[in-house]
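Q: For a teaching handout, I want to show students what a protein-ligand complex looks like in token form. Below are the inputs, and the small molecule is s-citryldethia Coenzyme A. Please produce the holo structure.
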Amino acid sequence: MSDKATLTFGDSSFELNVLIGTENEKALDVSQLRKNSGVITYDDGYGNTGSCESSVTFIDGDKGILRYRGYDIAELAEKANFLEVCLLLLNGELPTSAQLSNFQEKVSAFQNLPSEVLKAVESLPANIHPMASLATGLQALGGACSHLCTNDRQKDLENFDDAAALIIAALPALAAASHRKKVGESFKNPDKSHNYCTNFLSMMFAKEGDKPINSSLSKALDLIFLLHADHEQNCSTSTCRMIASGGANPFASLAGAVSALWGPLHGGANMAVINMLNDIHSSGDDGSGFIQSAKEGKSRLMGFGHRVYRNYDPRAKILKSACDQALEALGVSSPILDIARRLEEVALQDPYFIDRKLYPNVDFYSGIILQALGFPTNTFTVLFAIGRAPGWLAHWKEIAQTGKRIHRPRQIYQGSTLRYYEPLANR
Ligand code: SDX
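A: Here is the structure, written as tokens, with s-citryldethia Coenzyme A included.
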């Protein structure tokens, strides 16, 4: 396959390089196009545009493949844990047992929030959304640890391992501080004897005299974090890269990514799925009425569809079976799981969804497990952010290390052409 392409425009032709990736993906390199031809490309929503070369995650949307640093998501889900995958994403290799235990110790040591950060989170308005609280807490954390966020790229890279461990450690504590404030309970300090997920569940929900947390529940949460850990150039990760390209530190870049993730079409979908399933359940509809309204464009089947996957999202497949295990471990049944299954069954046989290649995505089943674990619906996207933090950090590091130019897309202007100021008296 030639690694050159020719673009003909008017009576001129322009030769373009063809970029070929390690998985044989191909891209026309248009980085010199405007300089050589005076024209730019246009791609609303970037559906056909590669913003970068990256080595972190590979997705084949047609085949439903997802790999972190070359390892298939199904194998990692079965054999690895979240903190191990954090190091894989951050460093590019699976850690040795010494590296993993050092990282676990570092994360455990960082889980105590600086007191002024805890006060900042607890001083936020009672009705603030947990995602807004998380973004604020991240920036406050950066302020409290200013030696880790200097906006001097070299310095921030030298301190990156500490910054990454601190952020991964602090996000659950920030989430727990916001939740405890909202429910009128005092903050519960981390317990170093717990693993990462057990500690988080304890910080969120534990009360004096509670029984120890069932390990299968923290395993279910660990799996959810692992499955959310990265997903190449999605909206929030591209936002993180955009901010990082300007030289901003990891705390600022991730605070921006948290805000991008909040949207209902992106990470906010897991909350929207549960609200959708609960509404269907309370309306007495078995799901077929809702499917009809989605086909008529009156509503969206939240948790379905994906810009890249034109096949079943491999994460949804894993989460669907994890639902059964989590509910069994909790000894609870979930009427909304039955509705979700029916929605999936009906949709996957309906031409509307088949023709548009709409399948369940990561958000379709994750909320059912989170609801069963006791998380309030409005914290679901916070959990997505905790899972996605290592991915965002890995992409921040990739931008910082490769020293890429600041991201600055072009546009096609469709506004008013030149006109002159009309004095106020004449308007
Ligand atoms: C995440 O990018 C990532 O990698 C994201 C993510 C990650 O890990 O970071 O995977 C996480 O964000 C998953 C997606 C979560 N969002 C939802 O579940 C919200 C519901 N899904 C849709 O809004 C939609 O499918 C998107 C946003 C996911 C994708 O949107 P696209 O690619 O812009 O597709 P589109 O909106 O142009 O839809 C194409 C067609 C349209 O119909 P027509 O105009 O052709 O007739 O499909 C229809 C849409 O109406 N359609 C749906 C639908 N999704 C698309 N119809 C009903 N229900 C849906 N869910």
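A: Two things your students might notice: The beta strands are 4-9, 12-20, 26-29, 57-60, 65-68, 71-72. The chain has a mean pLDDT of 95.
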